[in-house]
Amino acid sequence: MTRDRLHLARVSRRDFLKTSAAMSGAMLVSFNLAEPSTSFGQGPIAGSPQLSQLDSWIAIAADGSVTAYSGKEEMGQGISAAQIQLVAEELCVPVNRVKLLYCDTALTPDQAHTSGSQSHPANFNHDNLAQAGATAREALIRLASQRLGVSADQLTAKDGVISGASKSVGYGQLVGGRKFNLALDRNAKRKDPKDWTVLGKPVPRPDLPELVTAQFEFVHNVRVPGMLHGRVVRPPSVGATLVGVDESSVKNVPGFVKVVVKKNFVGVVAQKPWQAIQIAEKLKVNWSPGPALPSHENFYTHLRYQRPTRDTALVDSLDVEEKWNQGASLRSTYLHPYQMHGSIGSSCAVADVQGDKATIWSPTQAVWYQRNTCSMLLGIKPENIHVIYRRASGCYGLNGADTVTYDAAILSQAVGKPVRVQLSRKDEMAWENYGNAYVIDQHAATDAKGNIIAWEHESWSPTLGNRPGPGTPGNVVTGFLLGFEPEPFVARSPAPDPESYNNGSNGIPSYVAGKIKGKAYGTGTIESERVMLHSVRSSFWTGPLRSPARLQNTFAHECFMDELASRAKADPVAYRLRHLRDPRLIAVLNAAAKAANWTPRPSPKPDLRPGGIATGRGVACVLYEGDNGYSAIAVDIEVNQDTGQIAVKRIFSAIDVGPISNPDGLRNQIEGGALQGMSRCLGEHVTWDDQKITSVDWSTYHTLPLGFEVPKIESVLINRPAEKTNGAGETSITVIAAAIGNAIFDATGVRIREVPFTPDRIKSSLGTRT
Amino acid sequence: MSAVTLKVNGKVHNLDLDPATPLLYALSDDLELRGPKFGCGLGQCGACTAIVNGRAVRSCITPVSSVVGAEITTLEGLGAVEKPHPLQQAFIDEQAAQCGFCLNGVILTAKAFLDKNPQATDPEIDRAMSGVLCRCFTNIRMLSAIKRYAKEAAR
User: Fold this and answer.
1) How confident is the model at residue A1 (pLDDT cuts 50, 70, 90)?
2) Nearest to A698 among B35, B45, B88 (CB)
3) Phi/psi of residue A555, nearest 5 degrees
4) CA-CA to A586 of 20 to 30 Å: which in A226, A254, A754, B145?
5) Domain at B2-77, CATH from 3.30.420.40, 3.30.9.10, 3.90.180.10, 3.10.20.30
6) Average pLDDT of chain A?
7) Is-contact A225 A111, C-beta < 8 A?
8) Contacting residues for A320 by C-beta, under 8 A, at least 6 apart
9) Nearest to A686 by CA among A506, A403, A468, A433
10) B151 vs A111: CA distance, rounded Å
11) CB within 8 Å: A345 and B125
């Protein structure tokens, strides 16, 4: 939507369609906005188009052009191209005839969050966008049958025209200007993948021409008439509370509009952004410091012994204890730090709160939940709040998007004018909801042949806050400063027995049976199994960061599997295959090994030499969160044993996410995920002193730059047209840390069990080598 | 506040600004250009890049007073949707983006570097791009796009 004036004018869906129709010289389908209200936070609120109605998803104009409405947003992951393909395929129109609108509380159906690699599965597998396309196609054929007097089974749809028996009629002639007035039909027949003409092909992204020419409107570019600029003044340390604010310290600064103080929230509003920054810096604020933070140096010990805990048992065969003495036993502990989303653009939002109405432009992953929680913050009815998604820089989970939306809303309400807020780099990094730190103990027993006969996994991880969801604005910092509590921590120990199978964010290793009440749900064969998770309260905000917990758990599982293979003097691929039973996981592992020209031998490689450059290879695999995408990666690396530097030379990725909708979009996600995972495991970790976060910019939080020595990536895409589709965005990132860790071991004989694999850590570990 | 004259993408603009204001705010707020973006405000990431007299500068730490009279080019100044610059076209051809927020700094940094070093080798391009950050890690496609353009432009 180039320079889209739609939302600046704050039009309703009905007005929008009328305007569009007027612009195209045609009468368009109109929508009924009077929909029944449902209970707070449960499904669509009044005004949101209903999921069950075809007209909520698809409108066809008189010129035959198609507008599709989705509740899953484009954040840069490439989902818009795939969604357009779904609609074009089912409706039998070219992709350039489909316009996609997404995530606007007044226009699009409520599909909750865009998160968790669930967007394509939601709209492909379930009764949503693609099913709406199929429903519309069948409805159009019925209408054409009546219009042409030709039986439906003689009619075919192609390029927006239905023809048969030498007659034809266009979609626009059949429904342009009218509603379908139909329920979404769960039995409408979806196209057989063998008949696909649009899906399965590399359709280009629709946003690139505008992105590369700077015409694209990010949320940072939203400009509203009369808009002012806000800046927040966050506490100087974690847990600090406000004592007082001296407004006179800034009243005479040019551009000053207002100082806003609510409980522990402090912000300023100015005429221009640079003025707001100056005012925020000059404002005299007194804070009372918070409690001392746990020592960064001894943090993992602190984490392991922190009380109280919330304990969860995922599987327990009740016999692991007796196995430890039956065979050889191996124990290892893996450590993973807090990491941050570190979006390249600090988070930004624009809010226009006027009396009992509000319009909010937000990069949130959940516009409908933002409406609910902004309602709580502002004291305005949710139906009077219009939240419009606008893209920010990539978030990879819960970055500052939700919190800055609250900042803008509160400041706008205080001045009664539209306010734009963009966080400082430090405020973005010091207060975002970090990806969880982990301590993970692994314990396994093996028989005389080296086969694993028991596996126990026990982890400790801190949490505080989360996505705000429909009713918990205190899950992010601004809501908390305004007086809302984060979701409560409920201690529970001992853990109840598991009643049903839960993969627990890949807490369950790929190689165990995953048995609940005698039925095996896992991907592996090991029958003696126990997985125990301990959650504790975090000192810092936490929330989903791309492959949340799955990445940390998989790092520990796949490195430990490598340790077991090495001890059995077995090839790491062959050893994994000995303990797997899921054919699709076996297939991706074999495919990655084949691409890498993997020759069977145990790790470490023979003839290790100290000093100089050592080369090595490593492999790892996973079924993402137990049911959402098969991923295996093999890597070739170089370790500079003198400096501790790691250079990843080649990455071989094999992915099976069911039927492939857009192979180029899939490759883009695999590549980005693998390199982002590399950056995370080689250098990224959150740091703090006794009071505050100290990783607050790009000199104190280390990311790989664009022009580092980028590895070559070969992606093997396994197409499974008969399966359900899976998410792809978190597949490669989940296995890369383990693959690199295993390659370091292969090259040097040294096992690094702590992320990140910094040169200092590698060097000191190499120094302890005997 | 004082009168500041800036020449941006060939047009002269008279603005009333504190001379210490970083160029970024003049471009993105006073002129409402969508290319230059606030990423860090510290000159660390490149999202705010503009080309000033042929050199890629970090506009978030460049006071407007220091660029009065200079030729300033933003991403908008290269090409349009209907007629992209060949470097922009290379990014489309390679499908070289995810969120796209860093593209401004990536494309302008590459443009300024290749204008001065048209015969640059691939490793030289990698080095020239080592001060720009892309957190989606679209590195492979972006570097391919830059190298594709460099090879075409060098011919």
Assistant:
1) very low
2) B45
3) -55, -50
4) A754
5) 3.10.20.30
6) 93
7) no
8) A443, A445, A454, A455, A456, A528, A529, A530
9) A433
10) 45
11) no
